[in-house]
Amino acid sequence: MLRTEICDLLGIELPIIQGGMAWIATAELAAAVSEAGGLGMIAAGNAPAEVVREEILKARQLTNKPFGVNVMLMSEHVDAVMKEILELRVSVITTGAGNPGKYLPDLKAAGIKVIPVVNSASLAKRLERAGVDAIIAEGMEAGGHVGTETTMVLVPYLVDTVNIPVIAAGGIVDGRGMAAAFMLGAKGVQMGTRFLCAEECIVHPKYKEAVINAADRDTCVTGARTGHPVRTLKNKLARRFRQLEESGASVEELENLGRGKLYAAARLGDVEEGSVMAGQGAALVKKIQPAREILREVAEEAEKLLAGCSVPVVG
Ligand code: TUI
Which of 19, 98, 267, 288 would you label with 196, given CA atoms 20 to 30 Å apart? Predict the structure, then answer.
């Protein structure tokens, strides 16, 4: 079994964390992943605190295993969401799109584990000193809000920089990716795109179909000028975004074009005019299957590869 210190830290069986995906990662998906031995995550995204509270309570009905909440730090509701997390004593949070530093003293005092996604070694070091439990190194292959470094470089760089466990994310969708992440020094992986196509994932069926149909050059990054670049599948919206960016449109115009578009794709199934956030790994996702099967397949393949079975050695 692929057990690492991440399993002990979080009380889980497999060092696989489900990515927090706004409007997509609900209690259903989180509970299914946790039930199967990974760490399921409810994505707070831009949702109001009451909605996040309901999802946490729902997940507690569905599983007795540990699960977490992914907090999107750019959300206007972030303070209220953190208050709920503290009140409900959620066991672990991951954070994205910002620096969680100001919330750390209260979270630590409440015994809540904190695993931030960082986009630089300097932030990783600062957060390590402030007492976070692990960090997620998310490469630019990931879907959604991305940085500029690749998983291949960011993971070993952060492994060399901090003394807490590093979890690899970005472009990891199968056992090969997981095994590679371990070779880079990661102690666990976070996968989002693969879980889009979990049976228990409530994202619109057309969104799943778009991910399954994606090939190697079917994602792109738009919005660099807004300061929040996002990786999505290429579609009508992405092309319009590109055109606007090239024509020198204002940041306000670009932000207006993006507003509500993830909801349109994820919940309404508008995969042409909506924002279909997905990582480059979409090219490797081939079918819809239960979360349990995804976890088992990925872990078994990684274990086999790491045992050296399929690496041909000459001489
Ligand atoms: O957060 C993500 N992925 C996301 S968030 C999201 S919602 C959204 N929708 C539209 C526009 C923008 C966001 C969709 N996908 N991944 C984790 C992540 N965190 N990637 C990059 C970062 C990050 C960025 C800056 C982490 C820390 C950071 O720190 C800046 C600072 O304040 O020092």
Answer: 98
